[in-house]
Amino acid sequence: MKINRILFPTDFSPCSEAALSTALFHAQVFEADLHILHIVVPGTADMREAFPEPETISQKLHEIAEVRMRATVEKYQDEPFKIVEAVRAGTAAVPMVKRYASEHGIDLIVMGTHGRTGFKHFLLGSVAENIVRTSECPVVTVRAGENVPPVKSVDCIVASVDFSDFSEAVLLTAIDLAQTHKAKLVLTHVIEEYFHPGGVDAAWTGLGDPMNSYREIREKQLTEYAAKASEAGVPAYTKVLTGRAPAEITKTAAEEKADLIVMGTHGYSGIEHLWLGSTTERVVRISETPVFTIKINA
User: Fold this and answer.
1) Which residues, in sequence order, are CB contacts of 56 under 8 Å at separation 6+?
2) 269-285 pLDDT, tens per residue?
3) Interacting residues of 138 by C-beta distance below 8 A, sequence separation 6+
4) What does the alpha-carbon distance between residue 200 and residue 208 come to, in Å, rounded to a whole number?
5) What are the φ and ψ backbone dihedral angles of 253, each rounded to 5 degrees?
6) DSSP string of the chain, one letter each residue
7) Checking DSSP bridges between strand 139-143 and strand 291-295, what pairing results, if any?
């Protein structure tokens, strides 16, 4: 994995600040340039009341952003990597972040997420989840929290696979990251609690419980994945779990004291996303552990 340029979008909120140390850490590990980006999005009710003219709103917001950006960059001007500061204006943050990433050849995006759930999430959504779903480059999300300690190392990585045609990409990414950080790797697969192989009751088949057979198959596949990691010099362990995937993945990361979760996203959009959603997005929403996601294209 070659990461030369990292993008850290910020709105200068506590949510963004929680992710800053992660962005700085990855820039140092990969010896990459760190781009710090703020998108000025005018038009809030408070700003319209204070500054009725649209041009005045944009100008004031841009001036405030420049001051905050300068203060942020000055704190880290002695870091051993290049920091690029950028303030851009647009009507929405997501397309502007994606445009900046494309124009500047960004290899990794690091950003904070508010971790909204329930009705609040339904109304407000999440810029971070949108970026996770649509970004062409990998994204690391960090959930906001009180007294988030600075990132100093990555010693344990949890990678979740579903054995689809694209799980190999998640595995290879996790192995690559584990090699970079000299970390151990915990490979997980979650059998959803409502799933029943074959769609029949075992009592009617006389063949025993299909779930046990299914679990044995998945355990064997996961062991084969672990063998590939071991061949690459990465200590790997396996866990086949049963339950709801987002909850089990985040629970495992907490139990293992993981520093990173690695997952893939299929990038569903429109009605497909409305109905299917994404296990990865739900993990991003609830995980206390930073999540490294890669978009998997069919």
Assistant:
1) none
2) 544 443 334 788 889 98
3) 107, 108, 109, 173, 292, 293, 294, 295
4) 11
5) -60, -40
6) ----EEEEE--SSHHHHHHHHHHHHHHHHHT-EEEEEEEE----HHHHHH--SHHHHHHHHHHHHHHHHHHHHHHTTTSSS-EEEEEEE-S-HHHHHHHHHHHTT-SEEEEEE----HHHHHHH--HHHHHHHH-SS-EEEEE--TTPPPP----EEEEE---STTHHHHHHHHHHHHHHHT-EEEEEEEEETT--GGGS-HHHHSS--HHHHHHHHHHHHHHHHHHHHHHTT--EEEEEEEE-HHHHHHHHHHHTT-SEEEEEE----HHHHHHH--HHHHHHHH-SS-EEEEE---
7) antiparallel
CA dihedral of 277, 283, 286, 289, whole degrees rounded to 10:
-160
Single-letter amino acid code for the residue at 93: A
Residue 129 makes CB contacts below 8 A (sequence gap 6+) with 113, 281, 284, 285
pLDDT in tens, 160-196: 998 888 899 999 999 999 999 999 999 999 998 665 5
Q: Is 162 exposed, middle or buried (0-12, 13-18, 19+ CB in 10 A)?
A: middle
Residue with tokens 């972040």: 97
Give the torsion through C-alpha atoms of 280, 281, 286, 290, to 10 deg: 70
Q: Which of 73, 2, 4, 1 is nearest to 32 (CA)?
A: 4
Judging by DSSP bridges, how do beta strands 291-295 and 260-265 pair with one another? Answer: parallel
Residue type, 135: S
For the entire predicted model, the pTM comes to 0.84
Residues 6+ apart with CB under 8 A from 214: 191, 197
How far apart CA 29 and CA 22 sit, in angstroms, is 11
